[in-house]
Each structure stands twice: as structure tokens, then as C-alpha cells.
Amino acid sequence: MASKTNPASLEHSKPSHPQPYTIGYKKSHIQNHTWRTAENSSAFLIPHLLAASNSNPTLKLLDCGAGPGTITASFSKYMPSGQITATDLSEEVMTQARAHAESAGVKNMTCQAASIYELPFPDEEFDIVHAQQVLVHLENPVKAIREMVRVCKSEGGIVALRESDMRMWSFYPETQELSAFHRLIRRVMESSGGAPDTGVRLVSLVMQAGIERERIEASMGTWCYSTPEERAVWGGTFVSRLRGEDMRAKAQKLGYEERDLESMAKGWEEWIETEDANFGCLHGEVIVRKP
């Protein structure tokens, strides 16, 4: 039986001016996103997804800020009879997600451009709502969480969130160039309206969105880039950004010079080629059970 939509919640149909993605959608900006899968980036959700799929094979999952769709598509193996919807602010990146789903043979995934602040779905439409590395870029993450909760079903519905704490980057070798870049990327994030410490504040943000503490299950997860292939993905992304117009323009507004940025880019190139180089970062994770 379909639930009735609260008229007050129809604010999502009003015109708005969505906040642009901090780092943009160029190939160099999202190339490391294609490395991400459910297994290496959303493992905290998989047991809950399997349990939900076993009890309701036709469940619906919404992935907000899905980017090129590699995580979204990899959910399919855990809910083969379910329905997956991917959304992102950019129609261009949704085209990439559709192409990825097709190439991966995923038949139960659809893609739709949409703002996380104004999701074009009725109340209680989805059994599971997922977002990853999205809130960290937003000026108003609490509003986004409320919107995800709105479209999640009551009494058993789950909102799953995973966000980085960018202060908790660990890299070896710890060179001056990489340390300088770490400071730069946090400053760029803050100047664009995001919050580098979003991951550690997830519980607080969800509570601010109106969810009681006992309905929130918190954990921490990691990424590790160590193999030659992983180093090429992670380091290569930052080399491209540092030599791209968007990052340079933002950095120069913060007082950085061309030589500073080129030094950081060369630092990442050296890191990529260093056999014993390693990088790790920490992410906050929450499973929210909607009342």
C-alpha cells in the first residue's frame, strides 16, 4: 500500500539553486571514484542489505550522489531482484553511470539527475537510502539528511551514510609536498562550503536532523592505497587536479602560487613511483533505522 505524501514535504518540487560539487565533474576529478565498489567502500552496509534482500527480495535502494555509479552497480549482486536508483546533481555523470551499469550487465539500476536537497520522490519510497562522500561537500548536510530520511520507509527502513574525516589522512613517505597538499585540500573544501571533519560528526548531524541516538549505529571504515595500481589511481587524481584550472584557481584565491602547486603535483608523482608508499584515510559510517 502506497504511503500518502505530506504536503509539507512537497518542497522538493520548488525551484532551487543546488550547491555545485566542490571539486567538479571533469574526468580527472572523478577518475578515482571508479575505483570504489560496495566491497571496498560500503562494506558496513552489505550485511544489512543482504538481510533486507532476504526478507524482501524486491526492495528498493536509492544511492544519492552516486557519481559514475560503480558503488551503486555493485549493490546489484546483493539484491538481484530489487530495484536500484542512482541520483547525482550532474546529468553528465549520470550518463557515465548508465554506461557503467550497462557494461557491467546490471539490469536493475536506473539513473536520474537530482539534487540531494530536493529528491524527486514521494515520502517513504525506498527501503534503503545510501550516500557516500557527499555530505562532506555540502553547506547544509542536515537538510540533505532530512531529505534522505523523508524518502526512506518507516519501520525497517535504513539510511546508510559514509563520509571522510579529511583530517585523518596518513601517508608514507610523509614529504613536505604531500603535507602541503593535505593542508591545501582541506582549505579548498572549507572555502567551498564543505567540512573536512564531516565523518567524525555524522552521529551529531543525524541527530540534528531529528533522529534519536538509539536509532543510530556508528562505525569507522578505511581506505588504503598501496599497490602500484592503487597509487596510480589516488596519486594520479591529485596530480591532474593540481594541474587543472579549477584547483589552481581556487588555490590561488587562497594565496598559493603556481610553483607551490607544481611542487605538490611532482610530490604526488614521486609518491606514485615509490615502491613502499602507502596511504590510508578514515571514514565515519552510520546505519540509521527510521522509526
UniProtKB/TrEMBL annotation:
Organism equals: Pseudocercospora fijiensis (strain CIRAD86) (Black leaf streak disease fungus)
InterPro entries the UniProt entry points to: Methyltransf_11, SAM-dependent_MTases_sf
Q: What name appears for this protein in its UniProt entry?
A: Methyltransferase type 11 domain-containing protein
Q: Where are the transmembrane segments?
A: none
Single GO MF annotation: S-adenosylmethionine-dependent methyltransferase activity
Domain spans labelled Methyltransferase type:
62-159
- Pfam families recorded for this chain? Methyltransf_11 (PF08241)
Q: Which domain of life is it from?
A: Eukaryota
Outline the segment boundaries, as ranges, of region: Disordered. Answer: 1-22
